[in-house]
Design a protein that fits this description.
Order of helices and strands: HHHH
Structural class: mainly alpha
CATH superfamily: lambda repressor-like DNA-binding domains
CATH class: Mainly Alpha
Radius of gyration: 13 Å
Number of helices: 4
Strand content: under 5%
CATH architecture: Orthogonal Bundle
Helix content: 40-55%
CATH topology: 434 Repressor (Amino-terminal Domain)
Shape: globular
Length: 77
């Protein structure tokens, strides 16, 4: 299992774009699979706007990915 730590939305967009292309899916097809607009997907891939967690989750699911949120260690200084 590979874990990725992604800090910025443009990193998420780049990862989504690479995964989509690796699967041979165009933006229109992925948008239809996710139930989102092609414009919203394009913005996500380019690191633009402020995507919702719902959008990112839908795209991840369609690409066979999962999101993993973890709490930061609040005791660390």
């Amino acid at each position: 299992m590979i874990n990725f730590i992604i800090m910025k939305i443009r990193d998420i967009g780049l990862f989504v774009s690479k995964r989509r292309k690796a699967l041979g899916v165009n933006q229109r097809e992925l948008a239809l699979l996710c139930g989102v607009s092609e414009h919203a997907l394009c913005n996500l891939e380019h690191g633009a706007g402020n995507p919702t967690l719902k959008l990112v989750t839908a795209v991840a699911e369609a690409l066979g990915l999962e999101l993993d949120l973890k709490a930061k260690d609040m005791e660390a200084t």
